Amino acid sequence: MNAKQLYMETFGCQMNVNDSERIVTMLADLGYRATSQASNADMILLNTCSVRGGAEEKVYKRLANLRPLKKAKPALIMGVGGCVAQQEGNELLQKFPWLDLVFGTHNLHLLVDMVRDAENGERRCETAFIDNEQRLDLFPPAKGNSRVSSFVTVMQGCDNFCSYCIVPYVRGREISRRSAEIIAEVRQLADSGVQEVVLLGQNVNSYGLKTEGEPNFARLIRMVAEIEGILRIRFTTSHPKDMSDELIACFGDVAKLCGQIHLPVQSGSDSVLALMNRGYTRASYLDRIRALKAVRPGIAITADIIVGFPGEGEEDFEQTLSLVEDVRYSDLFIFAYSPRPGTRAADLVEELGREQKVQRLERLLELQKRITREISESLLGTCQPVLVEGEGKHHGQVSGRLESGRIVNFPGDPGLIGSLVEVRIVKAYQNSLLGGKYYDLTAEGAEEKPESFAVVQVPCFKRGNPLEDQT
Ligand code: SF4
């Protein structure tokens, strides 16, 4: 029997990417194989995101766009999952009569049944949130992002209700996975050759805080670090208000924890932060940054920033610019604000038009480009440890990451994949680095490293840490 073809489109965050990969695996049991061609598909699923504005419209447009395929092939199954499905539910089935199934963020475990029903002509919508006991049993399994690195989900959902964000409504409240399961999963990954784990959740810093008998996140990191075979640990995403001293201390004494953190700030202005309901101030955020840099000099910090939030005047925006100068992020993810229906911020009056928001976005982008370039250029000529994850951009190259997360391509044999090597950085691009000669730290006799390959520690803050100047 020929395999049936499944075409999936995924929007949004890493959680959605993980869910989509899980869906592909689940539906393989029903004989579906992934295809990159919608026109050949027997089933089309859109795994949606509603974090950014206009998400529903995008999904509506896409569904309208795909309709001719259903007309041409009535047996084609079409479905929508993820955050827009959670939000819109049955409405989607009513608006789009050619849609067969709608599944919410808590309902992946029902998908196989739903598809069977759809194959028999039954249209279904499942968006009910499930109880915590059941959620605990349904955490997604680890998912590799390369042969040597894997995502491990440790918590899901969020209790923070930032005023602009839809996540607590569509992903549900926060729940922490059982630590024993996490540890068992990481051990299994290490046994199968995985050397790096990325601990994943909407707000990993609050892991375990509301679950009796479970460790907090700092303790969990230390437990993961004890697992033999795991060389590197990363995590995402963190909330600054939950960035405890205990967690920051891990960056000082857990060698396996990479010197990298994504710590979304969203704005540099206290009044905007209050309107966003972020639960911290500019000063307390900078205090966390200072503490991180004190225990791990050179730590690479990235963040999300929203420009043009309601109430953001020119002075507020300048506060954001100056905070970015101070922190010297290694990279930034910048978004122009757009209201999400159903959130508190959607009721706030917007003073800025699209054009003004885009202008602010571009000013911030320019500033960050310069800082990123300066940080990358400060690495030129130094030797940096790289975990080799796969083949490189060009033939004859391999590719890996620095501790900071920056990608390095360098000439090497695919046999190096999975090795920790020291690479001399010879060129800096906007989004990656080019390496030259390397030294394999995992090869036999590697301890007799030539002096020319000593790692040169280059702090990210070439011109001193401006935060220190503020005290
Ligand atoms: S912390 Fe705020 S922005 Fe992040 S998922 Fe929770 S509500 Fe959304």
Provide a descriptive summary of the structure in words:
It is a single chain. Helix 9 packs parallel to helix 10, helix 10 packs parallel to helix 12 (282-295) and helix 13 (314-327) packs parallel to helix 14 (354-377). The chain has 471 residues and is of the alpha/beta class. It has a 6-stranded parallel beta sheet with strand order 2-1-3-4-5-6, with helices on both faces. It has a 5-stranded mixed beta barrel with strand order 16-17-18-20-19. A 4-stranded mixed beta sheet has the order 7-8-11-12, with helices on both faces. Residues 453-471 have low confidence and may be disordered. The protein has helices at 14-28, 55-72, 82-88, 90-95, 111-119, 132-137, 167-170, 179-191, 217-225, 245-253, 270-275, 282-295, 314-327, 354-377, 466-470; strands at 4-10, 32-34, 43-48, 77-81, 101-103, 124-126, 143-144, 149-153, 155-156, 175-176, 196-200, 232-236, 260-262, 300-307, 331-336, 383-391, 397-401, 407-411, 420-428, 432-440. It is globular. Among the domains are: 4-128, Rossmann fold, CATH 3.40.50; 130-258, Transcription Regulator spoIIAA (2-Layer Sandwich); 383-453, OB fold (Dihydrolipoamide Acetyltransferase, E2P), CATH 2.40.50. 41% of the residues are buried. The longest helix is centred in the last third of the chain and has 24 residues, at 354-377. Iron/sulfur cluster (SF4) binds next to helix 7. Iron/sulfur cluster binds at residues 158, 160-162, 165, 167-168, 202-203, 239.
